[in-house]
Amino acid sequence: MVVPGGPHQSREAGRGGAGSIYNAPPCGKRVLPVISRLFTISALLSGIALLLLGNGLLTTLIALRGSAEGLGDGTLGLISSSYFAGFLIGIYLAPRLVRRIGHIRAFAFCAALLAACGLSYGLWVQPAAWLGLRVLTGVGLATLYAVVESWLNYQAPERERGRIFSVYMVINLGALAAAQQLLRLASPLDYTLFAVAAIFVSLALMPVTWTRLPQPQISTTELMEFRVAWRAAPLAVAGILAAGLVMGAFWGLAPLYARKLGFERDAIAAYMSFSILGGALLQWPLGYLSDRSDRRWMLTAAAACAACGAALLALMPQLLPGSRVALYASAAFYAGFSFSLYSIAITHLIDRITHEQMMAGTSTLLLVYGVGATLGPALAGGAMAVAGNWALPAFYLLVTVALAIFCLGQLRRRPEQPVIEDPGHFVPMVRTGTAVLELHPDTAESTAATAP
């Protein structure tokens, strides 16, 4: 499998040359302060923020509009799954497209594709049409992530990559949370919100096509064999699969769940925003504990707490009917622990492999996540169609309980599991593209350590 991302040698060789904006000093000395560096890459960061405002709105809007049009829960689950299937396809296609036409043209091509898809959803409200459009949306977004993230890899000096990575993840989560508030602008039954989503995606073109930053090369990274990853850290593989199952179902079906609870448009926006913010904020204390304890126990505890949050989501409408604050709090609690499964699993694998294996190993986990995210909405949507609205938190509960039980079984079989080389560092993450893994502080260190 080909994974986008600028290699260490080409990234450094591209600086300081004729016409370059960098004059890189020897020994990796810092060229610009971090703030100046962020200003330099602000075009890329603002482009991804605008893109996620549009796509974040569109993801929630599709569930709400489809439900209002009478599409069944199972159908909406399949439509959501088709997006993640398209994203997996895009991971394979993105490097080829970027090599063929370059970063800026590839970004413009796929942003135009996403904008056209966004406008088309409101024109053809048909399940078959939406399935195809979601596949195209997934392919386009995977390519856009590849372009922006490989560019960020190229521009980030080794000593500043961790901070730039953190800023990038904050922008991701902040834009997704803010996108939910755009639902307040109009009814999902109107064409307005589809147009707003397309406008934001189109605006993302402006800063990226305006930039004069040098474009990186696209390298190739082989995937680690699945059996090697499983042998090294079975809990990491199981944790990332569970994260894909529950998070795919969350992004695709949580708006539908809130709507069936009787929430109006503004309340659905608040429900989604609280969930995303809870998922972002709770990762920091969990990460602090994860770096100071056995990460396998932290994964077990996070899965168990996510299961408790899922149980609260299922029971709260009966325990406190009409209390939206209680539902918002339950959603934030659940999301805080379920979002962290991805980050803990990635870091646990890093603990268990060598520096040379980090990019291949983490890329394999991202592929496993994508498989889970593709299956999750289809399975949860089918369960909702059969059993009703409560089946979504029940699906969360089933997956997280199964993960917690599996973790406990592994802990009993292997009570001690030493770190192979240097311990990894927990970094709050959301699933974006494969190229961003090179910005992770641990994989950045491995690149520096193994570069000739």
Structural summary, described in words:
The chain is mostly helical. It has one domain (31-450): MFS general substrate transporter like domains (Growth Hormone, Chain: A), CATH 1.20.1250. The chain has helices at residues 8-13, 34-40, 42-68, 73-101, 103-123, 127-155, 161-181, 192-203, 205-210, 226-232, 234-260, 265-281, 283-290, 295-319, 324-351, 358-387, 391-413, 441-450. It starts with 7 loop residues before the first helix and ends with a helix.
| Number of separate strands | 0
The CATH topology label is: Growth Hormone, Chain: A
The percent range for helix content is over 70%
Number of helices, where a helix is a run of at least 4 consecutive DSSP H or I residues? 18
Characterize the largest beta sheet: strand count, sense, and whether it forms a barrel: none
Order of helices and strands: HHHHHHHHHHHHHHHHHH
Mean pLDDT: 81
In whole angstroms, how far apart are the ends?
24 Å
Q: Under the CATH scheme, which class?
A: Mainly Alpha
Q: CATH superfamily assignment?
A: MFS general substrate transporter like domains
Please provide a brief summary of the model:
It is built from 18 helices and no strands. With 452 residues, it is mainly alpha-helical.
Question: Descriptors for this entry?
Answer:
single chain, mainly alpha, disordered N terminus, 74% helix, globular, disordered C terminus, Growth Hormone, Chain: A
